[in-house]
């Protein structure tokens, strides 16, 4: 005869059907790159409508993200948000080994403490494995493999986000000036400003302004301001704004000219961009 199994009855709890939204909620992967940058490497910069993780495995990388400049060492990673201008360069005569992983997400709550993370050794190894699997899945269009890595990366992000910080932000005077100028541009984004106007508003010479943007943005200040306007336009169009009202809100009196500039920066006309968003 079998001995009766003893158990302790748990307290009854009423069913509440509480909704638990997914966060992060990754919807698709864009690319997974594993690269070693040579000494002196300097990427010109870009922006795109998806998230991107930059993980430095070795060496030192200087990263511009929005209005801030970060210096990342081996073992650190940084998250770029959608439509954020960013660029990367090799620092201190090193050859940084970097993994770039990008994805679209309906929901991703970044920690308030900062966007720089230092995952543990085990999380580092898991990220390398996840990025490799995603690279293979994208290459072979393997939806099953990508779906499995989606779940793994969502869990990985939840664990990595526990130690976000901003300690890598550069406090160099040039980086601080760059941040202040970018914020000033954002405050005056509806105006038609030239480089000279921005220099005057920033209380610095035009030559110094150009030097700062060449160093931290990799482009001229006028081009940066134009692309900032177009990034803001893309946000408005995705939110449902009409092309005409978007152009007017950003200081473009001539909608045809706005269409031309938008297409040059984004690759498609604003009307088509709005339809597919």
Task: Outline the structure in words.
With 277 residues, the chain is of the alpha+beta class. Helices cover 42% and strands 19% of the residues. The strands form two sheets. Strands 1-7-2-5-8 form a five-stranded antiparallel sheet. Strands 4-3-6 form a three-stranded antiparallel sheet, with helices on one face. Helix 1 (121-140) runs antiparallel to helix 2, helix 4 crosses helix 5 and helix 6 packs across helix 8. It starts with 24 loop residues before the first strand and ends with a helix. The model has no long low-confidence stretch (mean pLDDT 90).
Uncertain segments of ≥5 residues (pLDDT<50)?
none
Query: What is the helix content?
Result: 40-55%
The fraction of residues in strands falls at: 15-25%
Helix-strand category: alpha+beta
Question: Which term fits the overall shape?
Answer: globular
Total helical elements: 9
Q: What's the total count of β strands? A: 8
Which helices and strands appear, and what pairs or packs with what?
Blueprint: E1 25-36, E2 51-58, E3 61-65, E4 68-72, E5 77-80, E6 86-90, E7 97-107, E8 116-117, H1 121-140, H2 143-160, H3 173-187, H4 195-201, H5 206-216, H6 221-238, H7 243-249, H8 255-266, H9 270-276
Antiparallel strand pairs: 1-7, 2-5, 2-7, 3-4, 3-6, 5-8
């Amino acid at each position: 005869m079998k001995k009766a199994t003893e158990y302790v009855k748990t307290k009854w709890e009423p069913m509440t059907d509480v909704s638990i939204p997914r966060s992060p909620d990754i919807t698709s992967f864009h690319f997974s790159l594993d690269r070693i940058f040579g000494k002196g490497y300097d990427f010109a910069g870009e922006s795109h409508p998806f998230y991107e993780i930059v993980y430095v495995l070795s060496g030192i990388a200087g990263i511009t993200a929005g209005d801030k400049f970060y210096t990342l060492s081996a073992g650190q990673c940084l998250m770029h948000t959608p439509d954020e201008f960013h660029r990367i360069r090799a620092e201190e005569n090193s050859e940084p080994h970097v993994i770039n992983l990008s994805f679209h997400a309906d929901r991703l709550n970044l920690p308030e403490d900062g966007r720089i993370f230092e995952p543990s050794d085990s999380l580092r190894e898991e990220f390398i494995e996840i990025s490799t699997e995603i690279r293979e899945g994208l290459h072979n269009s393997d939806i099953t493999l990508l779906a499995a890595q989606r779940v793994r990366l969502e869990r990985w992000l939840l664990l990595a986000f526990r130690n976000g910080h901003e300690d890598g932000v550069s406090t160099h005077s040039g980086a601080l000036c760059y941040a202040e100028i970018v914020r000033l541009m954002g405050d005056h984004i509806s105006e038609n400003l030239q480089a000279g106007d921005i220099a005057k508003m920033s209380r610095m010479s035009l030559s110094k302004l150009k030097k700062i943007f060449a160093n931290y943005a990799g482009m001229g200040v006028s081009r940066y301001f134009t692309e900032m306007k177009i990034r803001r336009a893309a946000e408005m169009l995705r939110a449902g704004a009409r092309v005409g009202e978007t152009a007017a809100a950003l200081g473009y009196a001539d909608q045809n000219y706005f269409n031309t500039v938008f297409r040059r920066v984004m690759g498609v006309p604003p009307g088509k961009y709005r339809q597919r968003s």
